[in-house]
Design brief:
TF_GRAS; nucleus; Scarecrow-like protein 3; single chain; nine-stranded mixed beta sheet; 2 domains; transcription; transcription regulation; about 425 residues
C-alpha cells in the first residue's frame, strides 16, 4: 500500500521538514510491507530509515529510531519463531531501573504530577466528613502522592482529632511496596494519623479485587494511573472470537425496535470486564482513572504504527521543547521507557502486548457497563494543576469536556483523567 507524503500528516502535529515527512512516509510504508509479508521492500524501507533516524537528533529523528527498531523486531517475529524469543522482545527491567524511569517520567513531564494532584483533591472532596477511609492504589509508583493526600486530609479535618487511613497497594515487586510502606508510616506518624498499609504482591492480571484486604463498610477511594489498559492484553484468537460474538449479539439487539443502541466496547476483554465488575462490587465512593488518550489497540500493524507515531511524536516534541538533546536522563527516558513502549505496541502480539492504549470514548461505555456512574473531577484540583503547569514550558494545557479532563500538548490531548462512583 503506497501513500503520498501529504497523506501521512499526523493529527495536530507541526509542519515537518522534508526529512521528517520522508521518515513518516517510510515508517508507514515499512509497516504496510511488513503486514502484507513483503519483507524485501520492508527491509529496503528499514535501510533507508537507518540513514534518517538518530537517537541524538531532533524529535522526529529520535522517535524514528525506536519505531525503526520496533519494526525490525516485528519482521524478525514474523519470519523466525526462535530468534525473537532468544533476543527477549519484552525486556524485564530491574526494580532500580523501573524506579529510575518512573522518576524520570515524573520529572520531565507534568502528567503524573497533574494526575496525582487532581486525584488527591477529588478523593478529599469525596471523603468530606469521614474519619476512616480506605485507598486502593492499583498503580503505585510514588509514595509522595499519598503523603500529599494525608497532608490535604489533615488540612481539611483540623477539627477532627482522629483520622484513620488504610492504603492497599498492588505491585509485582515486594521491595517497592516495602519502601512505600516505610515512607508513608513516617508521614502518618508526623501527621497523627492512625495508619495501616496493606501490601499486595501481585500483577493486576492475576488480581481478584474481591479478595483484597479492604474493610467492608468503610469509605473507599480507588486510584489507577496508566495501568488499566494492560488488562486488555489477551490471546488474539480469543479476542477475534469475542469480537464476532459481540458483533452478532449487537446485530440481534439492534434488530429490535425497542432496543437502545448497545455501547459495546470495540475491544472486548473478559479479563477487563471481570476486573471492573470486581471493583464495582467494592462499592467505592470515588474511583479516579488516568489513561493515555491514544488508540493503539487495533489488530492492524499499519494502523497501530500510524496512531502510535502520532502519540509518541507528540511526547518526543514535549521533550524537545523542554530538555536539552544531550541530557542523559532524557536519552534514558526515551530509550528505556518510551522506546520499549513503542516496541511493545509495534512488535508484540497476544498477551505480550501490554501497551494497549484506548481513548476515553471507549473507556466510558466499558465502565458504565460495569455499573459505574460518572463523577466530576475536583475543580480545586484543576486550579492547583493549572498553577503547576505555569512552571513548565508553554504548550501544556488542560481541557475539560463534560466531567472529564484532558492534559494536552498544544492542541493534542495526551492523557485523560476521569472520576467514577458506585
Amino acid at each position: 500500500m503506497y501513500m503520498s507524503g501529504s497523506q501521512y500528516h499526523l493529527q495536530g502535529s507541526k509542519d515537518w521538514d522534508e526529512d521528517g515527512i520522508k521518515i513518516i512516509q517510510l515508517l508507514n510504508e515499512c509497516a504496510s510491507f511488513t503486514e502484507s509479508g513483503n519483507f524485501i521492500d520492508a527491509d529496503t524501507a528499514l535501510y533507508d530509515l537507518s540513514h534518517l533516524a538518530s537517537p541524538d537528533g531532533d524529535s522526529m529523528q529520535r522517535v524514528a529510531t525506536y519505531f525503526t527498531e520496533a519494526l525490525a523486531h516485528c519482521q524478525l517475529a514474523k519470519n523466525l519463531r526462535g530468534v525473537p524469543k532468544v533476543l527477549r522482545l519484552v525486556r524485564a527491567l530491574s526494580t532500580p531501573e523501573q524506579q529510575l524511569l518512573n522518576h524520570l517520567f515524573f520529572d520531565f513531564y507534568p502528567f503524573l504530577k497533574i494526575a496525582h494532584t487532581i486525584t488527591n483533591q477529588t478523593i478529599i472532596e469525596a471523603m468530606q466528613g469521614e474519619t476512616a477511609i480506605n485507598v486502593l492504589d492499583l498503580s503505585p509508583s510514588n509514595a509522595d502522592q499519598w503523603s500529599n493526600l494525608m497532608q490535604g486530609l489533615r488540612e481539611h479535618v483540623t477539627n477532627t482529632p482522629y483520622l484513620k487511613i488504610t492504603v492497599t497497594a498492588i505491585h509485582e515487586k515486594k521491595e517497592v511496596l516495602e519502601e512505600m510502606e516505610l515512607r508513608l508510616k513516617v508521614e502518618a506518624e508526623r501527621l497523627n494519623f492512625h495508619f495501616k498499609f496493606n501490601a499486595v504482591v501481585s500483577s493486576l492480571e492475576s488480581l481478584d479485587p474481591e479478595t483484597l484486604p479492604i474493610k467492608k463498610g468503610e469509605p473507599l477511594a480507588i486510584c489507577c494511573v496508566l495501568r488499566l489498559h494492560s488488562l486488555l492484553a489477551a490471546n488474539d484468537d480469543e479476542m477475534v472470537k469475542m469480537k464476532v460474538q459481540r458483533a452478532f449479539a449487537e446485530m440481534l439487539i439492534n434488530q429490535s425496535p425497542d432496543s437502545a443502541l448497545s455501547p459495546f466496547s470495540p475491544c472486548p476483554s473478559q479479563k477487563m470486564e471481570s476486573f471492573l465488575n470486581g471493583l464495582w462490587r467494592l462499592r467505592p465512593k470515588v474511583m479516579v482513572i488516568t489513561e493515555q488518550e491514544s488508540n493503539v489497540n487495533g489488530g492492524s500493524l499499519t494502523e497501530r504504527v500510524f496512531k502510535a507515531l502520532s502519540f509518541y511524536c507528540t511526547l518526543f516534541d514535549c521533550l524537545e521543547a523542554s530538555a536539552s538533546r544531550t541530557l542523559i536522563g532524557r536519552s534514558l527516558l526515551e530509550k528505556m521507557l518510551l522506546g520499549e513502549e513503542i516496541k511493545n505496541i509495534v512488535a508484540c502480539e497476544g498477551v505480550e502486548r501490554k501497551e494497549r492504549h484506548e481513548k476515553l470514548e471507549t473507556w466510558i461505555p466499558r465502565l458504565e457497563l460495569a455499573g459505574f456512574g460518572t463523577a466530576a473531577v475536583s475543580s480545586n484540583g484543576i486550579w492547583l494543576a493549572e498553577k503547576l503547569l505555569q512552571s513548565y514550558v508553554p504548550g501544556y494545557h488542560m481541557h475539560q469536556k463534560n466531567q472529564f479532563l484532558f492534559i494536552c500538548w498544544e492542541k493534542i490531548p495526551l492523557f485523560s483523567i476521569s472520576a467514577w462512583k458506585f
